[in-house]
Amino acid sequence: MTGYAVIPGRAKGDILATAEGLSFWGGVDPLTGLVIDAHHPLHGQSISGRVLVMPTTRGSCSGSGVMLDLALNGIAPAAFVFREAEDVVTLGAMIAARMFDRPIPVLRLEAASFAKAAAAKTAELTDKALMVDGMALPLAALPVPDLALTDADRAMLRGDDGPAQRIAMEVICAMAALQGATDLIDVTQGHIDGCILANEANLRFAETMAQMGGRVTIPTTINAISVDHGNWRDQGVPPVFGLKAARLADAYVQMGARPSFTCAPYLLDSAPKAGENIGWSESNAVIFANTVLAARTVKHPDYLDLFIAMTGRAPLSGVYLPANRAPRRRLHVDLPAGHDDALWPMLGYIAGQLAPDRIPVLTGLEGTAPSQDDLKAMCAAFGTTSAAPMLHVAGHTPEAADFVMPDECITVTPADLARVWAELNQAPRQVDLVAFGSPHFAASECRALAELATGTRAATTEVIVTVGQNVLADIRADGTLARLESFGARVIPDICWCSITEPVFPTTAKTLMTNSGKYAHYAPGLSGRAVRFGSLADCAIAARTGQAPATPPDWLKEV
C-alpha cells in the first residue's frame, strides 16, 4: 500500500499542491474558498472542488471550524492528501460527515506516493486507489489499534449518558485511531477555542451540542469571543452579528464552561501546573502551556476540545507522552547585540518556519533574560508558522535540559531576523491603528505600555488593547486602566484581534501596527489592512506620531 484512507470516499478534481502547510483559520475564506494568507504561496487561489495536496496543515486549531463551514457551504476541497499526520482539518471533515452528512475524503500517503500526487495535474479517488494522471496509488483502510476503554468510556459509547456524550466519545475514539493511540488519558481541565463567530458552522455546532444535552465534566474555560459580551450594543455592533456571537458564547456557558472569554487562559488563576495533563485548544495557549508551564496537552482541534471537556478523556498520544516532547531540530541563534522585545516574536516566527513539522530547541539565548511576556509572544508567533505543539529554549524553559540535544542544527542569523522584519513591514509608514493584545495582554504588558504611552496620542491614530476580564479587573484596581484611557487608548475585554470586527475595528483604518508577530502574520488576511510590526516602544511612538519607524531597529541596521 502507498497510503491510507483516513476518511474514505470518492472524489475527483484538479490537483492543487503546495510544499508549505496552510492554516485554514486566517488562511482560507470559508465563504469563498480562497486562500487569504498573504504570506502563503497559494495566496489568491481557490481550494474549492480541488484535490488539495500538502504535507500537513499548520497554525490555528480553529481550522477545523473553517473546514466544517466550507463543507456546509458546499465549497470544500474535493479531497485532502497529506504526507504527515494531520488532526485539525481531518477533525473538521469528520464532524462534517458524522453530524451533517457532508463527507470530505482525507488521505495520508507515504513520501514517494505523496511526491507523485504533488507533481500530478488531476486526481480521482476510488474505493481502493488514488488515480493521479492515470497512475494508481493503492490505498488501505487506516489501521485501528485496540483501544483500552474504561467502563465509563463504554457507557458513553453506548449512549447511557445521552446522545451528546455518545458522539463525543465516538469522535475521541476515532481520533485515537487516527493518532495510533491505544489508551485514553484523564485530563484535569479544558479550554474551548471554537467560540468565535468566524463562520456559521461554529454556532450551528455549539447550539446543536447544547440542544442535545452536552455538558462539560471538568473545569473548562472559554477562548476570546467575537464581541465584548456585555457592551457590544453600545459599541455599535450590528444586532444581526452581535446576537449570534453572544448566542455562540452562551451555548458553551450553557454546557457548563466558565465565561472566561480569553485567549490567554494561562493568565487565569486556574493555570495548570507542570506535568498536569490538560485538554486545551487555541494554538498560542497550547504552545505556552507545553513550553513555558510544562503542562501537557496535544494541540487539539476545535470541536474535539469540547468533546474532551465533556468526557474528561483524550487520546494518549503526541506530547502527552514524555518521549514525544523531545526536540528534533536545534536552532542556534546568532544573537544581535542590543536587541529589544521585538526579538522574541520574530524568533518564534522564524523557528516555526525552520521547524514547521517538529519540535525545535533554541540555543544561543542562554545569556538573555526573557520575561514571561517575551516567551508568550514567542509561542504565539511560533504557532502561526509551525504545526508543532511546543518548542524549547535552552536556559529558559523547564524541559529544555531534559533531552539530548539534536544533532541537526540550523543557525538563525541577524540576516534572517532582518528578512522577517522586512516581511512583516511592507505597509506605508502612516499608521491609523495600533493593535495590542494578540494574545490578550497581561497586566504586566498593560503596565509597560502605560509607562510608554505618555504625552498626546496622534489625533489620526487609534489605539486598542484587548484583554481578558481578569486582567481588566487588575488594571482597573491599580490605576493602569485610567492611565491608558487618559492617553486615548481603548481597552476592550472578551474579543481579541483574531475575532475583532467592524465597527469595533475602526472602519477608516487602512494601516495598522502591532507588536504581535502572530497578528502581524494573520492581520492582512483577517482584516484586509496593511500591517507594520515593531517593538512595544516603536508601537507607542507610532501611537504618538502616527508614523511607523522608517528603518529597521538599530540592532538590525548593520545587517
Q: How would you describe what is shown here?
A:
The protein has 559 residues and is α/β, with parallel strands linked by helices. It has four domains: 3-141, Glucose Oxidase, domain 1 (3-Layer(bba) Sandwich); 151-320, Aconitase, domain 3, CATH 3.30.499; 326-422, no CATH class; 425-557, Aconitase, domain 3 (2-Layer Sandwich), CATH 3.30.499.10. It is built from 18 helices and 23 strands. Strands 8-7-6-2-3-4-5-1-9 form a nine-stranded mixed sheet. β3 (51-53), α1 (63-72) and β4 form a beta-alpha-beta unit. α4 (151-158) packs across α5 (163-179), α8 (283-291) packs across α11 and α11 (372-385) packs across α16 (517-527). The N and C termini lie far apart (50 Å). The model has no long low-confidence stretch (mean pLDDT 95).
CATH class of the largest domain: Alpha Beta
CATH topology of the largest domain: Aconitase, domain 3
Strand content is 15-25%
In terms of quaternary structure, the protein is single chain
The tally of structural domains comes to 4
Strand order across the biggest sheet?
Answer: 8-7-6-2-3-4-5-1-9
Write the layout of secondary structure elements.
Blueprint: E1 3-7, E2 11-17, E3 51-53, H1 63-72, E4 79-82, H2 88-100, E5 106-109, H3 111-119, E6 122-125, E7 129-132, E8 135-138, E9 140-141, H4 151-158, H5 163-179, E10 184-186, E11 190-192, H6 200-211, E12 220-222, H7 239-254, E13 279-280, H8 283-291, H9 304-311, E14 313-315, E15 329-333, H10 343-354, E16 360-363, H11 372-385, E17 392-393, E18 409-412, H12 414-423, E19 433-436, H13 443-452, E20 462-467, H14 469-477, H15 480-487, E21 489-493, E22 511-514, H16 517-527, E23 530-533, H17 536-545, H18 554-557
Parallel strand pairs: 1-9, 2-3, 3-4, 4-5, 11-12, 11-13, 15-16, 15-18, 16-17, 19-20, 19-22, 20-21, 22-23
Antiparallel strand pairs: 1-5, 2-6, 6-7, 7-8, 10-14
Helix pairs in contact: 1-2, 4-5, 5-9, 6-7, 8-11, 10-11, 10-12, 11-16, 13-15
